[in-house]
């Protein structure tokens, strides 16, 4: 039970790492008219889930959890660098670093041990910090994946609620529908072999790159 509570704390919107300040290109996609309503937002998030989160972020986190468990520092740095290299835009790379640095500051205050061999990896990407905390809190890999995925989904939907805009009820209904895909996404991520880890979301990459120079915006990325 304690591991579950620690997971809830890690994925809580109140965790002070600024997750709610990022839209990952969605703000520009809405500005450009690519996403105009609840149905279009659902399709956008389904695509990102299927072609990025479940094929890149989750598989990398799984490998980082196993690397921390096996004290394989070389693997920790390899998969951290792999993830950064897979981020197509300056904004997406900055998000990884900024959230990673915030976690690197927070985790020692939550009694998560972090020695010099891994601190740079944690500072580089928030997924490394999440995986390290999951390992030290005895959170299972499956639960960590589901929790991370829920956190991403909630932030993304709430960004859409603000930007489209949608009502809070529409946002909750959308969360209910999209969350039904979480078990399958976790199973898929667990089955992916190393050579298949990666993402293919060109629309997100274009939106993120255009967002870097968007004149008026609410979100950092």
UniProtKB/TrEMBL annotation:
It is found in: Cytoplasm. GO terms for molecular function: nickel cation binding. The keyword Cytoplasm applies. GO terms for cellular component: cytoplasm. Keywords: Chaperone, Cytoplasm, Nickel insertion. Belongs to the UreF family. Required for maturation of urease via the functional incorporation of the urease nickel metallocenter. UreD, UreF and UreG form a complex that acts as a GTP-hydrolysis-dependent molecular chaperone, activating the urease apoprotein by helping to assemble the nickel containing metallocenter of UreC. The UreE protein probably delivers the nickel. This is Urease accessory protein UreF. It comes from Neptunomonas phycophila. The gene is ureF.
């Amino acid at each position: 039970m304690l591991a579950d509570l620690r997971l809830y704390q890690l994925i809580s919107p109140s965790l002070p790492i600024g997750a709610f300040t990022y839209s990952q290109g969605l703000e520009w996609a809405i500005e450009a008219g690519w996403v105009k309503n609840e149905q279009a937002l659902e399709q956008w998030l389904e695509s990102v889930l299927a072609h990025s989160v479940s094929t890149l972020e989750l598989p990398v986190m799984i490998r980082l959890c196993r690397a921390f468990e096996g004290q394989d520092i070389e693997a920790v740095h390899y998969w951290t660098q792999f993830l950064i290299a897979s981020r197509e835009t300056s904004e997406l790379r900055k998000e990884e670093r900024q959230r990673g640095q915030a976690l690197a500051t927070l985790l020692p205050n939550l009694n998560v041990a972090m020695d010099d061999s891994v601190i740079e990896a944690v500072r580089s990407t928030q997924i490394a910090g999440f995986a390290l905390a999951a390992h030290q809190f005895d959170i299972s890999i499956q639960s960590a994946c589901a929790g991370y995925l829920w956190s991403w989904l909630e932030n993304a939907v709430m960004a859409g609620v603000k930007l489209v805009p949608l009502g809070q009820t529409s946002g909750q209904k959308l969360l209910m529908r999209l969350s039904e895909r979480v078990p399958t996404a976790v199973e898929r991520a667990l089955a992916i072999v190393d050579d298949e880890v990666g993402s293919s979301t060109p629309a997100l990459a274009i939106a993120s790159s255009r967002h870097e120079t968007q004149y008026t915006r609410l979100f950092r990325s």
